[in-house]
Amino acid sequence: MFSLLLKNGFDRLIPVLDFIKYLKEKGENQNFRIGTSMYRLIFSRSVEHGLRDDQKMLIIDTLDKNEYEVILRDGLKKYREYRITDLNDIKLTKLLETLKTTLID
Question: How far is CA 69 from CA 60, 66, 94, in A?
Fold first, then answer.
């Protein structure tokens, strides 16, 4: 099954899976609710499934292998937007820290 996914372009998600494992090892899964949508990884501080327009979220959109668009936003406004090539980029780390300081909602 995994080899079938690799043949169909999903190999670009391997670094994302590794990033999720890394965050879990650090215990960050206790700080965020994580959702996915095909090539997107969405972090929030939401208690409930789904997000309201006023809730902040961090979206990591996998554009290609080692090419990501990272957006900190709520439903109505973008606060930061970056293109990065490494999920260990300090910009992403800082955005996760910023999101972590928002109230659990």
Answer: 6, 10, 15
- For residue 95, the tally of other CB atoms under 10 A from its CB is 22
**One-letter identity of residue 104:** I
Confirm whether 5 is domain-assigned.
Answer: no
Summarize pLDDT for 27-85 with one digit per residue, the tens.
Answer: 888 888 878 777 788 888 876 676 666 788 899 999 988 899 999 998 889 999 999 99
In a domain, 105, yes or no: no
The reply to whether 6 falls in a domain is no
Asked if residue 3 belongs to a domain, the reply is no
Considering the entire predicted model, what is its pTM? 0.82
What does the CA dihedral 31, 16, 79, 103 come to, rounded to 10 degrees? Answer: -10
